[in-house]
């Protein structure tokens, strides 16, 4: 059982129907735990619906859209050794919360367990799954899953102490691709992250999303992460690869402008990862170039 060990943290904004479906599932899990919902200034009645239909859920209603920082708020309130993030359009399968918590119990050097994501309605594997399953990142033989240097927040359970040690998600990133910087900081702090086949999370992609805005933020945040944590040559090489994979359109141009505007902040916060982590990042570049999930065309 995961009760007493795990808090489920959900961030949401203007997706009332999807959130209600997710909460109905997560609050009924036999291995579930307390649920915290951070409502990022929804205007569609989300907060009222949670209060009325899910009184057992702890609701935090923000007056502004916090983006991914809403997860930091939830972690600060959790009071449990582990926090499982769940988006308003993802649901952990029965037994998966307990499985991930058991692994974190058994392996105190592991900061996070990322599950296998199945996309509804057909339950095909998420396009990023092959990258995670076949991750070339070196790791110790005892690790309970594939070692990774990246996570997908909505399908990952974190060790609270590790998450808080590195400061959680960076507020400047806000949303979309914000996990990459967190993962690198966890690795630099000596933590392991792994992907585990039998931890399963379902994803029903929401239609209520601004694809162009998510792409702009995703490109910007990827560029920022390279220059925040990688040596200059690697940051330049990877930045060019990201831009070559993106359409030459107004959204990409806006992302580049935003990234350049953030240069003073990046230079102040720049902290290059240790050589062993940089070597692992280089190993990941081949799979990333071949990945259909990293084309920045959504």
Can you describe this structure?
This protein is of the alpha/beta class and 298 residues long. It has 2 domains: 6-203, Spore Coat Polysaccharide Biosynthesis Protein SpsA, Chain A, CATH 3.90.550.10; 211-294, no CATH class. It contains 12 helices and 10 strands. It has helices at 16-26, 46-53, 69-78, 96-106, 129-133, 160-165, 179-188, 211-229, 232-245, 250-261, 263-269, 275-290, and strands at 6-12, 35-40, 58-62, 82-85, 90-92, 110-119, 124-125, 146-147, 156-159, 192-203. Strands 1, 2, 3, 4, 5, 6, 7, 8, 9 and 10 form a 10-stranded mixed β-sheet that branches. Strand 2 (35-40), helix 2 (46-53) and strand 3 form a beta-alpha-beta unit. The protein is globular and about 55 Å long. The protein starts with 5 loop residues before the first strand and ends in an 8-residue tail after the last helix.
Break the fold down into its secondary structure elements and pairings.
Elements: E1 6-12, H1 16-26, E2 35-40, H2 46-53, E3 58-62, H3 69-78, E4 82-85, E5 90-92, H4 96-106, E6 110-119, E7 124-125, H5 129-133, E8 146-147, E9 156-159, H6 160-165, H7 179-188, E10 192-203, H8 211-229, H9 232-245, H10 250-261, H11 263-269, H12 275-290
Keywords:
298 residues, alpha/beta, Spore Coat Polysaccharide Biosynthesis Protein SpsA, Chain A, 43% helix, 18% strand
Quick summary of this structure?
Strands 1, 2, 3, 4, 5, 6, 7, 8, 9 and 10 form a 10-stranded mixed β-sheet that branches. The chain folds into 2 domains: 198 residues, Spore Coat Polysaccharide Biosynthesis Protein SpsA, Chain A (Alpha-Beta Complex); 84 residues, no CATH class. With 298 residues, it is α/β, with parallel strands linked by helices.
């Amino acid at each position: 059982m995961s009760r007493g060990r795990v808090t489920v943290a959900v961030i949401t904004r203007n997706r009332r129907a999807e959130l209600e479906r997710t909460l109905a599932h997560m609050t009924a899990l036999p291995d579930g735990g307390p649920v915290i919902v951070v409502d990022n200034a929804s205007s569609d009645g989300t907060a009222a619906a949670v209060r009325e239909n899910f009184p057992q859920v702890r609701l935090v209603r923000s007056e502004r859209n916090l983006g991914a920082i809403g997860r930091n708020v939830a972690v600060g309130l959790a009071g449990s050794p582990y926090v499982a993030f769940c988006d308003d359009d993802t649901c952990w399968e029965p037994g998966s919360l307990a499985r991930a918590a058991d692994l974190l119990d058994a392996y105190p050097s592991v900061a996070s367990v990322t599950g296998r994501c199945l996309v509804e309605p057909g339950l095909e594997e998420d396009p990023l799954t092959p990258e995670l399953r076949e991750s070339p990142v070196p790791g110790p033989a005892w690790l309970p899953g594939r070692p990774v240097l990246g996570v997908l927040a909505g399908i990952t359970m974190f060790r609270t102490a590790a998450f808080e040690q590195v400061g959680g998600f960076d507020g400047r990133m806000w949303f979309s691709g914000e996990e990459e910087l967190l993962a690198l900081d966890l690795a630099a702090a000596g933590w392991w992250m792994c992907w585990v086949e039998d931890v399963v999370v379902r994803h029903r992609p929401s239609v209520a999303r601004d694809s162009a805005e998510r792409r702009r933020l995703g490109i910007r945040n990827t560029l920022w992460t390279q220059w925040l944590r990688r040596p200059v040559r690697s940051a330049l090489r990877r930045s060019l690869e990201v831009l070559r994979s993106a359409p030459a359109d107004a959204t990409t141009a806006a992302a580049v402008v935003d990234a350049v505007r953030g240069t003073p902040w990046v230079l102040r916060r720049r902290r290059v990862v240790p050589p062993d982590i940089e070597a692992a990042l280089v190993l990941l570049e081949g799979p990333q170039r071949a990945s259909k999930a990293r084309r920045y065309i959504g």
